[in-house]
Specification:
Elements lengths: L44 H23 L3 H13 L2 H13 L8 H10 L15 E6 L16 E8 L9 E2 L17 E5 L8 H11 L11 H10 L9 E7 H5 L6 H10 L2 E8 L3 E8 L34
Helix pairs in contact: 1-2, 1-3
Bound molecules: S-adenosylmethionine.
The site of S-adenosylmethionine has 22 residues, from helix 3 and strand 2.
Length: about 325
């Protein structure tokens, strides 16, 4: 068996287990069971974290092997990934992490912020934001908090994933292959990228993915002028400008990486035209909401963000994002 890089202790999972170590008995998953009968829903929090962490390591090692054109190593790593139950097992483990007793559904924070900003009304079908269109990249379930708002302030949620857990509600497609909508009305008000960037093994692909999110966001707010006037009359202080990108990362990606800091991430986002409008750190996750300014994104096309050491030290992880020029 091929040895992979030593575990990056502080980057494991991305889903926080809470204090309870009891086995999850929740049964609302749409996760499929693989031929290997891997069923992480029965695993302990520790075992779930270990499975997610091992997947991250194997995928990272595979990306390096692909870059070095080491076909034999790629095959060995593919075998190891398959033996672990493949992507389906990884997703099921992540879905387990979405259980309430493991830290929950990250879209709860998105919904909280949309409400706070007056983009979602307090009651069904009464508030502004009726027409909010959401694209969820890396979707595991159609039952999360943002999905439950469909018909209650959100018009629709388009969910995509590399490996769909339920083809009727989650389209199986790589975001990088998702056709860019030609017309503004077919684009989205909110794009969600929750715990996806850290899953992408290649640092340049992470940058490309972030850049591509802009093509899916509308140029104009969906709040009609009447909606805006009504909203401002009700709560003048609220800023209802759209469109927005919701990003969630394991906190150590920003707080303990050799190549990334919170400020550096904000610089990358700012360069892409994204203004930070909300942020929250839980014990294990960093939640961020950005607003895209389509005018700002046009400037300074030559800047490059390389993988450079920003925070030296021993006990660090290697999370990085590389952004090539436009
Ligand atoms: C850790 S799970 C996170 C799921 C969920 N968003 C959450 O916050 O719990 C990461 C998911 O991102 C998906 N993913 C990674 N890269 C993707 C891509 N390029 N296009 C679509 N989905 C992707 C993976 O298949 C995986 O299901």
């Amino acid at each position: 068996m091929v040895r992979t890089a030593k575990a990056v202790k502080s980057l494991k999972g991305g889903r926080p287990p809470l204090t309870s170590k009891k086995l999850s008995t929740s049964n609302h998953s749409t996760a499929t069971t693989t031929t290997n009968e891997v069923n992480p829903r029965r695993k302990s929090a520790k075992a779930t974290r270990k499975l997610i962490n091992t997947h991250h390591q194997l995928h990272k090692a595979r990306a390096i092997a692909v870059a070095g054109n080491n076909q034999q190593l790629v095959r060995d790593l593919d075998t190891q990934i398959e033996q672990l139950g493949g992507l389906a097992a990884y997703q099921a483990a992540s879905l387990t992490g979405q259980d309430k007793d493991r830290g929950g559904d990250s879209s709860i924070k998105l919904v909280e912020w949309l409400r706070k900003r007056g983009l979602i009304g307090q009651q069904s079908n009464t508030g502004p934001g009726q027409d909010l269109r959401v694209l969820e990249i890396g979707a595991l379930s159609s039952q999360n908090a943002i999905s439950r708002l469909v018909g209650k302030g959100v018009r629709d949620v388009k969910r995509i994933d590399l490996h769909s857990q339920d083809k009727s509600t989650i389209e199986e497609i790589d975001f990088m292959d998702l056709p860019i909508p030609l017309h503004d009305e077919d684009k989205f008000d909110i794009v969600s990228l929750s715990l996806v960037l850290n899953y992408v093994p290649d640092v340049a692909h992470r940058g490309n993915m972030l850049r591509r999110t802009r093509d899916f966001l509308r140029k104009l707010s969906t709040l009609s002028e009447t909606d805006k006037d009504e909203q401002e009359a009700r709560e003048p202080a609220k800023d209802t400008r759209l469109p927005c990108l919701f990003v969630v990362l394991p906190l150590p990606c920003l707080s303990n990486s050799r190549y990334m800091t919170h400020e550096h991430f904000l610089s990358i986002m700012q360069h892409l035209g994204y203004e930070s409008i909300e942020k929250h750190n839980s014990q294990k996750l960093a939640y961020m909401l950005f607003r895209l300014d389509h005018v700002q994104q046009q400037r300074d096309k030559s800047t490059v963000f390389k993988k450079i050491e920003l925070r030296p030290g021993g006990e660090r992880n290697n999370f990085a994002i590389v952004l090539a020029p436009d």
